[in-house]
Amino acid sequence: MTGATDKLCVGMITKAHGIKGYVCVHSYCETPSDIFDYQPLTNVAGTQQYKLKSVGTVRGMFVASVNGITDRNDAEMLAKTELYINRNQLPEMDEDDTFYVSDLVGLTVVSETTAVLGKIVAVENFGAGDILECKSDDYKTFMIPFTDDAIATVELENERVVISNMAESFIRDEGDNT
C-alpha cells in the first residue's frame, strides 16, 4: 500500500513542566492515553528511546516523566520532540472500512468522475479536524477537509480517495484565482 510507513508519529513532547524533569506531552492517538501503552517511543530516526510515565494532566496535555530525565534543564532539551512507534506496534484493523490516518498519505485524489486531481502528501490537524494536504501538477497545493461532505469514499485497495463534487468545485475555484 502506498500510504503505509514503518514509523508513525503518535505524539510530541511540547515543553518542560516544573523543576523535576517532567515534560508536557501532546498525544495524537484516538484515545490520548494510549500513547503510554506504546513503550518505548523513539525519535524519528529510532536512535533515541523514551519511556514515558504519566504523572498528571495540564491544559489538555499529559504531564509525564521520561526515563533518565531528572531536572528541568534536561527536560527543556526534549521540547518539540516528536514521538514515534513502529507501525507493527499498532493493532490490526478488524473492519474493512477502517484505517489509520497515515494510510492516506500517498493516495491519489480523484473526483467523482474519476479525474485525477493530485496526491495526498500529508494529513494535518490544526484543532478543527483532519485536513488532507494534496499536491498536483494542475493545481497548487490544496487542502480538503476530511469530512463526510468533502470525501465521497476512501478506497485503500485502489489507492485513492474520491472527493465530492462540492469539494472539487472549491479546488477548481481556488486554482482559477491564481
TrEMBL record:
<feature type="domain" description="Ribosome maturation factor RimM PRC barrel">
    <location>
        <begin position="102"/>
        <end position="163"/>
    </location>
</feature>
<dbReference type="InterPro" id="IPR002676">
    <property type="entry name" value="RimM_N"/>
</dbReference>
<dbReference type="Pfam" id="PF01782">
    <property type="entry name" value="RimM"/>
</dbReference>
<keyword id="KW-0963">Cytoplasm</keyword>
<dbReference type="InterPro" id="IPR011961">
    <property type="entry name" value="RimM"/>
</dbReference>
<comment type="subunit">
    <text>Binds ribosomal protein uS19.</text>
</comment>
<dbReference type="GO" id="GO:0042274">
    <property type="term" value="P:ribosomal small subunit biogenesis"/>
</dbReference>
<dbReference type="GO" id="GO:0006364">
    <property type="term" value="P:rRNA processing"/>
</dbReference>
<dbReference type="GO" id="GO:0043022">
    <property type="term" value="F:ribosome binding"/>
</dbReference>
<dbReference type="InterPro" id="IPR009000">
    <property type="entry name" value="Transl_B-barrel_sf"/>
</dbReference>
<dbReference type="Pfam" id="PF24986">
    <property type="entry name" value="PRC_RimM"/>
</dbReference>
<protein>
    <recommendedName>
        <fullName>Ribosome maturation factor RimM</fullName>
    </recommendedName>
</protein>
<dbReference type="GO" id="GO:0005840">
    <property type="term" value="C:ribosome"/>
</dbReference>
<comment type="similarity">
    <text>Belongs to the RimM family.</text>
</comment>
<comment type="function">
    <text>An accessory protein needed during the final step in the assembly of 30S ribosomal subunit, possibly for assembly of the head region. Essential for efficient processing of 16S rRNA. May be needed both before and after RbfA during the maturation of 16S rRNA. It has affinity for free ribosomal 30S subunits but not for 70S ribosomes.</text>
</comment>
<dbReference type="GO" id="GO:0005737">
    <property type="term" value="C:cytoplasm"/>
</dbReference>
<keyword id="KW-0690">Ribosome biogenesis</keyword>
<dbReference type="InterPro" id="IPR056792">
    <property type="entry name" value="PRC_RimM"/>
</dbReference>
<feature type="domain" description="RimM N-terminal">
    <location>
        <begin position="9"/>
        <end position="88"/>
    </location>
</feature>
<dbReference type="InterPro" id="IPR011033">
    <property type="entry name" value="PRC_barrel-like_sf"/>
</dbReference>
<dbReference type="InterPro" id="IPR036976">
    <property type="entry name" value="RimM_N_sf"/>
</dbReference>
<keyword id="KW-0143">Chaperone</keyword>
<keyword id="KW-0698">rRNA processing</keyword>
